[in-house]
């Protein structure tokens, strides 16, 4: 436990329901022997002087208050209450403030009750108006406390009363991460089954899997891996941390070794004729368009080199959503065009369909890309697939293969986050091309059940000066595909412009905008590409070829 406060004399404080009426101090011999024994055992070392007094709460009866001298710090405070004990850890709040808050707030009391596993106390406090999702000064809720201490019955009850399973504390930790540090596998499995993101990241980038591995909880690691935890990301994170913290290298190596030992074996997939037939029936008829024949770009027209990196994501088939027609093939064709421009195979990351999970997208953008980008290099990011708006805020999300528009905050990848992560790169230029839409009005956009398409979208992002975003749509429009051409309309004209020799992103935008608009009208759709920042500000920049 961290040593947080330093005082010559520490007065230990107590929890109350409404307010406390202090009584005169009682001699220690008046304290029941078993309580005194527990206080000495749990609260103080044998060489510390201890004073005990009592106080009374109107509703909770006698509470024993411990005051001790002999050390200049507080590790934990333990209060004896009717034979049970309450643990309170002080962090960034002064003791007088804590006394005041704990004396008035039922919300703090429900956290203590949850931590102890006192389900009766939790029910009582909720009945009296305590907030099931209240947070303490560190952002911990009753659910997080219960998860940390492995109180599964309390967790079940809190969830039944509306506790937020996805909540994070001030450090970005979820209840699953806290449970993982202690190896509470039954609690972890419950939280995962309730929908918590097994690959959620804390502010420092750690996940439940990195925590479980760090503390050596084999069963917890095994459970997380079986539930889809991203082992590759966890290993990358631990390796990165080992470099930053060389004094603990051996511990990181032990955690990595545990993960490698428990890494799931790749199973041979049996070939089944019915499945093959089903797949064949689901394939689009082969459509040949003029852009399917790759352009021949001679070396003197190439500016893309070995330092330039590309990420290409195309999701056509979703786990639980309608298709995004032609997105997979579009992504593959974009890769071929980028190779023709000069991108090296090893510098292109292509992820499609079932491989394009939230964890895979996150790993690619936030781990794979930063590890490869060069200060004077270019980055090209292409996405084709569903987008979705968060109904409350209008924030736009990329929808991964395993995404759910009803739970975007935990299953989607926010565009704001994408732009922020790309902005952290030290690349010379970053080009983003989005063949998707985010209004929820149809096309390549999906919407949470019961929600309506957004009429007003959130304001456009303010981007770093080295980033440009070319998008298939504006505002509430939808991005569509052309059955005749076998491609997304935006992607078709984007690649056609490259094939015809257009050089810069602004030039491509100005060329394809009227073409996309006309094609979309023939499909009874309003679609007009957009660019951020304005094309006028991009002249002579973001060049793809000579």
UniProtKB/TrEMBL annotation:
Residues 308-532 form the Peptidase C14 caspase domain. GO terms for molecular function: cysteine-type endopeptidase activity. ANK repeats lie at residues 105-137, 138-170, 171-203, 204-232. It holds the Pfam family Ank_2. Gene3D superfamilies: 3.40.50.1460, Ankyrin repeat-containing domain. Keywords: ANK repeat, Repeat. SUPFAM superfamilies: Ankyrin repeat, Caspase-like. InterPro entries: Ankyrin_rpt, Ankyrin_rpt-contain_sf, Caspase-like_dom_sf, Pept_C14_caspase. GO terms for biological process: proteolysis. The keyword Repeat applies. This is Peptidase C14 caspase domain-containing protein.
């Amino acid at each position: 436990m961290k040593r947080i406060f330093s005082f010559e004399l520490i007065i230990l404080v107590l929890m109350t329901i409404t307010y406390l009426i202090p009584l005169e101090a009682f001699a220690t011999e008046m304290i029941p022997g078993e309580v005194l024994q527990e206080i000495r055992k749990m609260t103080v070392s044998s060489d510390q002087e201890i004073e005990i007094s009592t106080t009374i709460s109107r509703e909770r009866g006698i509470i024993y208050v411990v005051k001790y001298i002999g050390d200049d710090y507080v590790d934990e405070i333990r209060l004896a209450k009717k034979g049970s004990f309450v643990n309170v850890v002080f962090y960034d709040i002064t003791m007088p403030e804590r006394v005041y808050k704990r004396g008035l707030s039922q919300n703090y009391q429900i956290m203590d009750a949850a931590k102890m596993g006192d389900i009766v106390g939790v029910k009582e406090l909720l009945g009296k108006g305590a907030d099931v999702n209240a947070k303490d000064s560190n952002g911990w809720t009753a659910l997080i406390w219960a998860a940390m201490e492995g109180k599964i019955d309390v967790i079940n009850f809190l969830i039944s009363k509306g506790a937020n399973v996805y909540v994070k504390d001030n450090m970005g930790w979820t209840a699953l991460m806290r449970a993982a540090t202690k190896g509470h596998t039954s609690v972890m499995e419950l939280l995962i089954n309730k929908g918590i993101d097994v690959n959620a990241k804390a502010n420092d980038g750690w996940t439940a899997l990195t925590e479980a591995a760090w503390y050596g909880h084999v069963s917890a690691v095994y459970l997380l891996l079986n539930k889809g935890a991203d082992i590759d990301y966890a290993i990358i994170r631990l390796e990165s941390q080992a470099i930053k913290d060389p004094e603990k290298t051996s511990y990181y190596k032990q955690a990595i070794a545990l993960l490698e030992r428990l890494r799931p074996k790749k199973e041979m997939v049996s070939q089944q004729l019915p499945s093959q037939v089903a797949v064949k029936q689901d394939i689009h008829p082969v459509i040949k368009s003029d852009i399917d024949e790759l352009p021949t770009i001679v070396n003197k027209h190439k500016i893309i080199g070995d330092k330039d990196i590309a990420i290409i994501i195309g999701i056509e088939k979703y786990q639980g959503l309608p298709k995004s027609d032609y997105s997979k093939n579009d992504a593959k064709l974009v890769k071929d065009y980028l190779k023709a421009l000069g991108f090296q195979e090893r510098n292109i990351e292509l992820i499609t369909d079932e491989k394009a999970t939230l964890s895979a997208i996150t790993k690619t953008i936030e781990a794979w890309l930063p590890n490869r980008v060069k200060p004077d290099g270019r980055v090209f990011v292409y996405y084709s697939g569903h987008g979705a708006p968060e109904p409350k805020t209008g924030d736009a999300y990329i929808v991964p293969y395993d995404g759910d528009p009803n739970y975007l905050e935990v299953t989607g990848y926010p565009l704001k986050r994408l732009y922020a992560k790309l902005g952290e790169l030290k690349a010379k230029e970053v080009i983003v091309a989005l063949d998707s839409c985010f209004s929820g009005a149809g096309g390549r956009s999906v919407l949470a059940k019961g929600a309506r398409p957004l009429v007003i979208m959130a304001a456009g992002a303010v981007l770093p000066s080295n980033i440009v975003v070319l998008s298939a749509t504006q505002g509430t429009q939808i991005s569509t595909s052309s059955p005749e051409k076998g491609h997304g309309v935006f992607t078709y004209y984007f690649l056609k412009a490259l094939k015809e020799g257009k050089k810069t992103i602004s030039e491509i935008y100005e060329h394809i905008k009227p073409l996309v608009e006309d094609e979309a009208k023939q499909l009874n759709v309003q679609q007009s590409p957009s660019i951020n920042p304005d094309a006028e500000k991009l002249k002579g920049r973001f060049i793809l070829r000579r």
